[in-house]
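Morning run. Coffee first, then this:
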Amino acid sequence: MKNLFIILFLLLFLLFAPIEALSKGKGGHSYRLHPKTYCYTCARDKHGKIKRDSNERKKFLKSKGLTHTPKGYQVDHIIPLAKGGADKAENMQLIPKDSEKERNELK
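And here it is:
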């Protein structure tokens, strides 16, 4: 009888619990606020940011004959990390800081 009560309680909870309460991630952040841009499978650091590999960035710059990012440019991921792109040198490019791509991604 006690088990039946527990099962009934759990079923009622799942039916009537707010969706936000069930979708809270670590730290209480709700993923429902940005479902189109949030990458659920990306490796993340303790602050929730997508982990980056500084060695891959250095490898990319070295392949271009550079030691650092030129002034007025930035290293950009061709396929954004948030959309499943790899943090690999093959997925990186140099773009001007005021490029059309940057403006579109900030929207």
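The chain is about 35% helix and 10% strand. Good start to the day.
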